[in-house]
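HUMAN:
Sorry, I am quite new to this. Are you able to go through these amino acid letters and fold codes? The numbers rather puzzle me.
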Amino acid sequence: MGPISLFDKSFLQSISLDEAVWFDRFFLPVACPIFFVETLADLGKDASKRGSAEFSVVKDIAQKFPEMGGSPCAFHVDIATQDLLGNHTPLDGRIPRSGGRPVPKGVVYELGPEERAFNRWQKGEFFEVEKIAAADWRKSLSELDLNKVASELRSIGIDGKSCKSLDQARDMALAVVSEKANAMSVLALSATFLHAPQHLHRPIIEAWKRDGRRPLNVYAPYAAHVVAVEVFFQFALAAHLIASNRPSNRTDIAYLFYLPFCTLFISSDNLHRRTAGLFMRADQEFVWGVDLKASLKTVNSHFIKLPEDVREQGVMSFAHAPPDGNIVAGLWGRHLRPGIRTEVKEPREPDPERNAELVKRLKEFSKQPTLPSHQALHEDDVEMMSIAHSVRRKRGSWWQVPKNMPDPEDDEQQ
């Protein structure tokens, strides 16, 4: 548990395996598709140039991938396209997750393809389909008709070359998505950025007209956010505020598409450090990964002093809150409700009967038949939600679950 935290590859790659355990324990990580694309990038290289070093890097990252909590996030293109069609996603920090199975009273989420892939990568198993997907997904980020974008921006009187600062580039981008007089042109621009399929163009326009032809930022707030980030990036490149000779910048800037779905954004990337705050809400915070890594090391040193018999009970049994006096504790204080650290440090007494009943209910809930899509509950009406996680019993120096917990199938799933 902890603040909902978007993270990038640079951060996860920088921390140790023990530090990864504490990141997983004291934060609610958001694994966005761009992280997956970055991690897969080496697997998508020309086979003649691909070697064991690339597989080793991916395997190392997979070992640190969050297991105990958090969630993968749906692809920004899918969310934004649905937004344009009138199916809106809340932008209040909740994580939109795809693949849920609607059942009576709620939704059941099984392990997603990303999580299953990371489980395999931990063992050094790389499926050919994932290597192909790596190249395809990265290609989808780079395939943008810049001449068409420039033409559409000029049609509404915008030229990014006049920008003098990143702040000005952001302001000009926000002005684009709030255009009233040229709202139709901005809608067309959004379809270009999102590579919206041709067969969806008419339904998008019709949905926008039914809604009253409002500016994009009012009609489809998330699509507007994505377009604003894209336009900002193009302006910053044109004005030489962001280097155009680094292809990785295109992938790095895409993390900003997922800012509405977190409280914290954790990164050790300088481009993120310069730009993320421009698109974050007042209740959000950018966390420099280098500083958080040092704090996680302090947390690890604190808990490693506990007696071995205590540590063998698993981190979830004794590490209820971060120790005082470090960045992790400060983030909890600023972004979780007041008093929660005191509450979790004083957990209720174990109640075997209550726990057994809860497990029974969850199993029964998860085994319910899938409802037809038209009978699925609205997210505000969901009473229960089941999310599957695959958790290794031990990771690095730490038992994540009790050492003596039976594992008859040896599949490390809890």
